[in-house]
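Note to self: user wants both folds in one dump. Writing first protein now.
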Amino acid sequence: MKEATKEITLDKYDQHILTLLQQQGRITNNELAEQIGLSPAACWRRVKALEESGVIRRFAALVEPSLVGQPLAALVMVTLVRHHIDNTAEFEQRIRQYPEVLQCYATTGNADFVLRVVIEDMAAYDKFLNEKLFTLNGISQVSSNFVLRSIKEETAIPIR
């Protein structure tokens, strides 16, 4: 996730575009324009401007992990030995290379980082820990919480 540098002012059309695109990412430009009350050309220009400004980061399909062989999910709390820029930079650079890590957040509290990991099974998770995570320099503690079931998974950002 990019760090926000400047908040963008959104008018009612931009807000409506963002709300609809988050609900229906495959909507055509003509359908989108019709629903928000703009011409297709004006709608396209607005969507393009939202992309270029970074408000829209990308378009993606949401895949059900359990249906593609990744039914196990874990929230992994990682604590580093030292909070030195070199340690954190190396950790962040390496963690970006691991496809099983879907999200990595630098956090406050007991852990320095929280990861969301999806993986095939416990044997694969053990391999991930031993061959990837535990090989990183500067880690002092790793704690894993496994997801039993998902209560809420939203991807849409409330647009106000």
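First done. Writing the second protein, which came from a different request thread.
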Amino acid sequence: MAGITTGDLSGGLAAEREYVLDARPEDGVRDAVNVWIEEESGAFATRVGIEAVAEQWDRHEMWLDVAFADGRLYSRRGDGETQPAAGPGGKPTVRATGPLRFECVEPFRRWTVTFKGQVAVTSAREIMENPDFRVKAWADIAFFIQMDMAAPPWQPGTMTPEAAAAMAGKQGQFMSPRYEQLFRCTGSLTIDGETRTFAANGLRIRRTGFRAFAGFSGHCWMSAVFPSGRAFGLNAYPPRDDGEPTYAEAWVIDSDGRRIGARPVELPWLRKLVTGGEPVPLVLETLEGKRIAIDGVTFANTRSRGGHVLPPDWPKDWPIVQQSHAFYTWDGERTTGMIERSSKPSVMGL
């Protein structure tokens, strides 16, 4: 496939940044590995992750969604017995809990993820209307996915001066130290004995540190890699009530292969919950003054189930999170990618 980078994919980051924490850190620290994966034709998409939280180090949190374009959804939330972090070479390259396992095969170049276990059978419609639904049926699911990175990682706060200033303040605490890296992947997915092989695009996130939640008011996060190697990524928070600058950052890799910083000009903020087919166009302006319009439409939307683990005294107007997967078109070239957005219920009229 065209566009796969063959040079240095580290982006200047040390290989040790890829290693997971192998010993319990101080309270409040989270060490996470998660990926978004979109089958190249849009038949289905997945979001898979493990969150290792200091206070429950013996049982890491895990989440898994396999969403099909026809509305079917296989979902699992919970925790599992923490597995050893040491990989084949003795370094902490494995983050695994229960039936879910991530492994760094080569830093910034190749990861794998595997799963074999039972997953709740539901639908995009049901999870939107009732995130805490009672499980009525289970499916046996197994997958193996090999992820080959397609671009160097991006660290939020590195692409524009305004973003750097925002990340150095309170707004940066909503993310915690992290980087994300686009990839292409191949794999096999088995559901109740029926196996399919596939090729897909994806985004991998490594996040380690403290993460604040109080005061968070929403976001828009989008990223994708195209067959030619062009790519984009962005994250932005909505305008603040006090009129102060808000975090908004983007980047593009155009046909020349260079990554350049950009600013979001038009974004599809979350204003309604739908199961798919939602237009999500965006406009970016690079630091060199070039405007780039990318068309988008979702093919699988699911509401985050994170709300069921929040404490009872959590703010009533806490943002609703929607995790989706979309078709993106840039100058006639089409691909699949991710989009996650959140908005307060009061903003959405809910």
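Dump finished. Worth passing along: The longest strand covers residues 194-210.
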